[in-house]
Specification:
The structure is a homotetramer.
Chain A: E1 2-6, E2 10-14, H1 16-22, H2 25-28, H3 50-68, H4 72-84, H5 97-104, H6 112-116, H7 118-126, H8 131-138, H9 142-148, H10 154-167, H11 176-182, E3 183-186, E4 189-192, H12 197-215, H13 218-237, H14 242-247, H15 250-259, H16 264-271, E5 277-283, H17 289-292, H18 296-310, E6 318-320, E7 333-336, E8 339-342, H19 343-346, H20 348-360, E9 362-367, H21 372-383
Antiparallel strand pairs in A: 1-2, 3-4, 5-9, 6-9, 7-8
Helix pairs in contact in A: 1-4, 3-4, 3-10, 4-8, 10-12, 12-20, 15-16, 18-21
């Protein structure tokens, strides 16, 4: 058994298959993948990695198993899945996931191949565990997959608390131990026991507050969009392919961007935190429906057209259209008066949060500060945006970040 | 200048009129008034007092004044009001406030008389401050009263964080420093600056989660109702009057209850934590409207009738009908796109929280465990309650408390 | 099983005999005994009680048992002893322990009688546990008594962290979980395993820093001495005897002091925090040896003589001569290179701390501020103190407290 | 003014010259220099950077200036020095500092050249600040240099608390705010005011406990030694020179080590955490004096000889002989009874800590696990070590780390 000191959960004990997996290059690699990618440019203390997060998820899974009374082979499978659940992440975690998905067809939780091969596959098989089954748990399959990836999974319980600890934003401080103690299975469904509607709501609300403040902070969105664009150019101008990119770590990608001619300008901007600025920042209601349906190539074309008209390099215009907000947690299941109910049906907060998230949705167009006014104007015309009250609304983000200095 | 070490805000510096006020018996008395009264029976660590809370409110007021650039006499007034804002509390804070209000016509924030007399009045006048003006600030009057008592007051900012620290329930952990930094006055109204809708929501949500978990926890409600009833008997059977009761501290009241024959049975129950149990616990929708309008004497009569039918002592039946939930925060003002808006109009969460709070509302009837079944049945008949699915719904409160052992 | 939320250890689970004991008046009474007594006058947030501390000690004992692999009857005994270890405390914990000891011959950990009688005795016997045996564990007897009361006991692990949490003084923040994990029994002795000399030192150092800053803070010492003296008068002038006093709680004692003519002046001083002041405060080296040997009655006589000469009431002069410092932890046992060694022999810090504590020792003479100069002069003469450089050295205690306002 | 959210100090406000400096590549580069280098291999959460630490040091300096009443130009200089104090660090901070010093003659706090050139120099001059003067403050020169680099500097106050927050080891949790409030200048010397001997000791003790547990943890020492050796080979086998190495960041160095043939084996070991193991680990008393005087080249020769005899590659034997422990803090100055005293003269703890640190000193010889026994034996002979009781004593490090799995 190994014992590891964690800044969030204190002492974490690792034994069994998880201890063997810990020493594999596949898991150790996560030490070099930052948990929140470019959020570090907003919250300077947010340098935590997927490695410590994976240890935390393993730990909470282990606690949940103890509470649920799950032991033996089944428990070993879940612990393995918890520790391995993020090995599919590329450099900067979610930041360039869309890009690698487009090219490889794989999201970060598509890990069957990774788990079946190399030393991870070997260790799993040595412990009589089927890599395909573990990969299924990582993807959220089956009764026990809900613990690893679902509305009440230990992944979220760890990252909310951990991101709060490292950013300094307290909103993620949920009562993880209470959640763990109130989990139970009813008819193979993972639910919270009676008396826990507020417990379920608290998880939802924590995410609802962390989202705009941390994960979707405008500076994080801008820098992430810049990183994604630069990585795309890296693929286009070097012999690095998307599969290779996906297996890089943060160091590899940053140095590749710094040392490739086509991306060194971006790398310099990133290193010196001279980020693009918002030329347009507007609400869902002002965006024509057809814009929401554009695919990647169509967006690239629009960006090129706008850049051309504005007489700036093509790389200097980025249009970012986020997906429409979903509210996955609405299907969290809670026991109320003896029956299992969907939180979405039980709690008026769920619908309100969905509406609130739609209200927070913004389309962004980013470019260099000096071109912002011109690009904004031309982009509005090109995209058919009719925005009352200025192209960039809510330009200030309060004091949560060093945003102001760059705008 | 005095410096005081606080477990929540670390070092607190007190100077000027506040330092002089600190040493008065009126303020020192708050050391003996528990902040959360009988919540201590649910959360054993919740033994903090109105004294440390008052220091905290003073400290946050001082921080807010620095951010707002308010200085001189005006600032001294607000600091004095912040330190003094709770001197009107009776023993166990809000727990018996309804009772003393009924008899004295004064709520805890009605402090004009207290501030005008004795050493507090003397000190205020020595510092050229008008006690009536300070009492007005405590009551929330005028532009600056909003800082002391209003939707964005420093009172709430302190108690949420402090109650979280002492109960161990993390939900109250707001970002107080951010709130302070985002306050501003526009047209004499205290508002949050642009970009702070979520900041305002976070304050709301913290309260919405602390409410059912801490402040309105069933065991806290039951014990509070018992304490109120016993205090009423104390007034009825001794020569202690309501004005005197209001100026007691926790020690005085507890010992008076222990040493008065009419209340010693209650005191024993309280000391040994042998609390009443819920005989009825039901939602707003099952409660006839006319019940909600009953006054105190009518309720007492109903209790007496039920006790009589159930053949238990009159003191052993308590009906508790909370006020219908309000959502005072809906009028929090936030700047959005350059205009001041009411949070209730801006944020879909406000209405949802109002609905959620109505959903959490419960009428309770409490009695001894052995009589619970009988009293419940008879009370339902007497009160005209038609409750499907049992008289006590959601009897379990999760693991937040030692509730289960008593029921 | 009951689950209790604690502000220090989060969720605490109680089952078995401990759960049954929890509901006894003997244990519930601890809710009304403050952990640190008059330290509250220095650190306003330090209002925690022996009840929550006892829960914490129970919890850490339970964790230690799991780490040590101790189960069954033996474990139940230790858990019971942990929960009960402080039931012998009188009001204000250690503050008046000397007084009640002088009159009853019992320190707080002499609980055989308490455990054998009443409902505690009944519950223990129902669970086939011998009250005498449990009382022995509380007193530190036998191999397992070391866990409850010894150099490596869970009592200290809880109170250091808890006192830090509630005072705001961080020095007590030890790594309790590491300590628990490194405990083992070798030849029936409780020791720390190899590689833990620093772990043992950290426990020592935490206490060494908390001592002068919290437990022996001058204001805490003065107020404690005043409380002890007032309690002595209470015994002398009423029909309350020492056995009764010992079983009071904080409320009882405070109200008794307030309502007894001979002590009401003290009670007023205490309530209004108008404390005595140091007339003399001097180091061990300036104190004649024979003074250190004076018994209680001889000290009282000296106080009377000084008061008489200074023409102040006898009750207004208090001489406090602390015991010479010991360093109990020097016998903490640690495994070094495979052998058990005494920390005192292994670590140069132990002797240094002993020396440092002697350096911190102070004799104090306390009186009203107005009489301080006169009493100091007369007391120095009467006590034969020859103090270079003034009667009160180091009069300032830094910023840890509101001391200054009273001096 | 920019406001930045920090996980340790909450909101940090930056204005004036510091705000301008914040945006320079020289300061932004610190985002990519880890604060504790390879300590991350022991404490997985320790991924904080020199950037956030520099912000923290700036913040504490700003607080200290406010307490000391220093304003204007002098204050701007000190704030600039605080923010810039670590810009001279190479990749992995102190880990390869010895190496770059040997080749460049510069330690990390030798920053005159760096501050005089480029945009930092420009900004300083624009603000009428002399780069040479600021560099002097960074080096600890003059009265105000003591605040930036000295026994009571804000550097240490930040790193102890920050390292505790990120490793999870609580020992560094000092009371920074108290320290700041107790600083004063007497005769141009920075001292702690009366009543603060324990405050000074607490700083000392925090470092004394963090040292062996974190900074000098055996796994950190081994991995640091490996990194230093690999970096040395990088210089020897590529055209990267020491000046260039010193200006790399962590990404550059890691990728360079991975992509250089002579160092890729090390890089693999590092990435997969397959570290060397202790072949010898022995106390000062067993080490001949002349070994302590060997210079770098002589050590390399010894390593080569041992490797040759053991028939392992030369790169696989590392001898690490730390400097003899010093106790810089012994000259901390504290006011006692009105005079300035050296803490070393006042506190018996200082000498004891010095002795304790000598007791913790270890010479280490590291190699691959499979060769450890053989290399240990041969190295002992070659180095003339006569070690009773085995070559590796105290092989276990308790549970603070994942050490065990690698040995």
């Amino acid at each position: 058994m190994a014992t590891i000191k964690d800044s969030v959960h204190d002492h974490i004990e690792i034994s069994g298959v998880a201890e063997a997996l810990l020493d594999t290059p596949t898991v150790q690699r996560l030490r070099h993948i930052s948990q929140l990618g470019t959020v570090q440019l907003v919250y300077p203390s947010a340098n935590h990695t997927r490695f410590e997060h994976s240890l935390g998820v393993y730990h909470l899974a282990d606690r949940a198993l103890a509470e649920l009374g799950i032991e033996g082979r089944e428990a070993e499978r879940i612990r393995a899945a918890a520790l391995l659940h993020d090995v599919g992440h590329g450099p900067f975690s979610h930041n360039i996931e869309e890009l690698t998905y487009r090219k490889t067809g794989k999201y970060h939780d598509d890990v069957e191949e990774l788990l079946a091969s190399g030393d991870v596959g070997e260790i799993l098989r040595e412990h009589d565990l089927d890599p395909t089954h573990i990969a299924g748990l990582v993807a959220g399959d089956g009764q026990f997959g809900q613990l690893v990836s679902g509305e009440l999974d230990v992944d979220r319980m760890d990252y909310l608390v951990r991101d709060a600890h490292h950013t300094g934003v307290p909103y993620g401080t949920i009562d993880a131990e209470r959640l763990l103690r109130e989990l139970t299975f009813v008819d193979n469904e993972l639910v919270l026991t009676e008396g826990n509607v507020q417990t379920a709501e608290s998880l939802l609300l924590a995410r609802a507050l962390m989202n705009p403040t941390v994960y979707m902070h405008p500076v994080a969105r801008i820098s992430k969009a810049m990183l994604r664009r630069a990585s795309e150019r890296l693929l286009a101008t070097t012999d690095i392919d998307a599969h290779e990119l996906r297996r890089m770590d943060d160091h590899d990608l940053l140095v590749a961007l710094r040392t490739t001619q086509a991306t060194e300008a971006f790398a310099e901007r990133y290193d010196e935190r001279r980020l693009f600025k918002r030329a347009i920042w507007t609400e869902l209601q002002h965006v024509p429906d057809d814009l929401l349906d554009l695919d990647h190539d169509e967006l690239r074309e629009l960006e090129a057209t706008i850049a051309d008209r504005a007489d700036v390099p093509e790389t200097n215009v980025i249009i970012e259209i986020p997906d429409e907000p979903s509210m996955r947690e609405s299907s969290t299941r809670v026991v109320v008066n003896g029956e299992i109910r969907n939180l979405g049906a039980q709690s008026p907060l769920v619908n309100a949060l969905r509406t609130a998230q739609r209200g927070q949705w913004r389309l962004g167009v980013y470019t260099t500060p000096s071109a912002a006014e011109r690009v904004g104007r031309l982009a509005a015309a090109e995209l058919g945006l009719d925005i009352p009250g200025g192209l960039v609304t809510e330009s200030r983000q309060g004091i949560h970040a060093t945003l102001d200095e760059f705008e």
